[in-house]
Design goal:
- There is one protein chain.
- The chain is mostly helical.
- Helices cover about 75% and strands about 0% of the residues.
- It is built from six helices and no strands.
- Helix 4 (about 45-65) runs antiparallel to helix 6.
- The protein is flat.
- It starts with a helix and ends in a 7-residue tail after the last helix.
Length: about 110
């Protein structure tokens, strides 16, 4: 549903986000990321890459739920425990994105 709404009417979604002050949170987050980059605490990764990495990893399990259950989890009761494991995997992947040097000399 959310993905179809994003595609169908992104302006409406943005207006809802503004009413919830979500845009303000994003601005604060982007400022914090830029500060961390400038201080050399994290790699210089575009905010859009960070957002897409996080967003896609949060949405993918739900989009692929049926096939995940069929191919790997074997029972829908295993989906919630899988999400807890996936959460830890997402954290690790984001750490790699933000903290792992691109070149060995970094």
């Amino acid at each position: 549903f959310i993905l179809s709404e994003i595609q169908r009417d992104p302006d409406y979604l943005m207006s809802v986000m503004e009413r919830l002050y979500f845009d303000k949170y994003l601005q604060i987050l982007e400022k914090l990321i830029k500060n961390e980059i400038n201080e050399g605490k994290i790699r210089n990764v575009p905010s859009s890459f960070i957002f897409l990495s996080f967003f896609s990893q949060m949405v993918s399990p739900f989009l692929a739920k049926n096939i995940l259950v069929t191919l790997f989890l074997k029972d829908e009761a295993n989906f919630i425990p899988f999400l807890y494991e996936w959460k830890e995997s997402v954290k690790k992947q984001l750490k790699v994105l933000l903290f792992t040097p691109v070149n060995p000399s970094e």
